[in-house]
Amino acid sequence: xxxxxxxxxxxxxxxxxxxxxxxxxxxxxxxxxxxxxxxxxxxxxxxxxxxxxxxxxxxxxxxxxxxxxxxxxxxxxxxxxxxxxxxxxxxxxxxxxxxxxxxxxxxxxxxxxxxxxxxxxxxxxxxxxxxxxxxxxxxxxxxxxxxxxxxxxxxxxxxxxxxxxxxxxxxxxxxxxxxxxxxxxxxxxxxxxxxxxxxxxxxxxxxxxxxxxxxxxxxxxxxxxxxxxxxxxxxxxxxxxxxxxxxxxxxxxxxxxxxxxxxxxxxxxxxxxxxxxxxxxxxxxxxxxxxxxxxxxxxxxxxxxxxxxxxxxxxxxxxxxxxxxxxxxxxxxxxxxxxxxxxxxxxxxxxxxxxxxxxxxxxxxxxxxxxxxxxxxxxxxxxxxxxxxxxxxxxxxxxxxxxxxxxxxxxxxxxxxxxxxxxxxxxxxxxxxxxxxxxxxxxxxxxxxxxxxxxxxxxxxxxxxxxxxxx
Length: 471
Hints:
By secondary structure, the protein is mainly alpha-helical. Helix content is 57%, strand content 6%. The chain contains 16 helices and 6 strands. The chain has helices at residues 3-29, 49-60, 63-67, 122-127, 135-145, 167-172, 176-189, 199-234, 238-241, 247-264, 266-269, 273-308, 315-351, 363-390, 400-414, 423-433, and strands at 115-119, 129-130, 158-163, 195-197, 446-451, 460-465. Strands 2-6-5-3-1-4 form a 6-stranded antiparallel sheet. The N and C termini lie far apart (150 Å). Residues 39-72 have low confidence and may be disordered.
């Protein structure tokens, strides 16, 4: 072996080692495939270069893998693509919401001079009818009179306020137009040095006086009426109480809630149109429930008419008459409650100063007339069925004991006085129909007396002449 060959082998080994080190370093430093730049055209070519440098570079260049797409395998042998998870964009934050604060309700304008205060002697105060006031109402009277009745030399502790018919209830509701008209009329006819109540004090004082008057006339008695109605409703059998989807029970509950709210917060609710509107709606629902029960009772009477007209009154007729008369009595129990609820709803409306809507038929007068006619029909049916029962003949061999028991039960029912259970309902309907709303706007002017003791004492009220309301 000559020296030249040994040197060539050594040079080749060194070149291969350098090329391997160079390729290893590129693979670690950059994962992306390296693109080889073509050599310049005019560069000299070394004759020994193809054996040492070019072959390793061509073998490691991955450029063809990028520029050429691989041939796809057959469809049957193609592997399933790996599941890709779509990256969702982050949710968009909600747009900012600007909440505008509610504007406070503007207060009613205060009219400085509304009701003029007149001095009253002791004789008129003693002759007037006192009003029973609660501790809260006495404090309200004292607060309303604090500014206007500051003690002056020679002044009386008792003052009078005069109202034209129909103005007291509207002042209590805070009717601005009426308050201004009353103030203008008072300013034209009163002396300049007179003492006055402004609109706020006048509204509070008149509402308190009307609250005490309404409680004495209607609201206290209506509370007792509601306790009796609840007891009567609780005594009904569950099946009978649930008739008509329980609308009668709902009406009793609504009337009880309305009456309690009016009695406890009369000064507040008298000026709320929404509350008075709900009471008016309750009157309409009570009238609808009454008409529905009247129709049910009339259906039972029609069946009794057919039984009474039967040519033969035997076992079947006795049993049918007994069943239908019991059904009629159950319907009349519901009618009695419905009539009292109808009267109570209208009484509450009158206590709030609202008249019944101007309809062609008065619902209270119509209910009273229908109840009176039904009682007359019941008396006629009772007399005819009693005569039929006396001449009833049954089978002498079959069901004799049951026939005699049904006859005895029917005779016992027919012997009860007709209309006794309906007397209270009739009385309530008549009273409510004959009553006018509080301060109905007719009659002579009313005069309210106010006593405001010096210091921190509680005030008291008396009506020298009350607002007109019939009944």
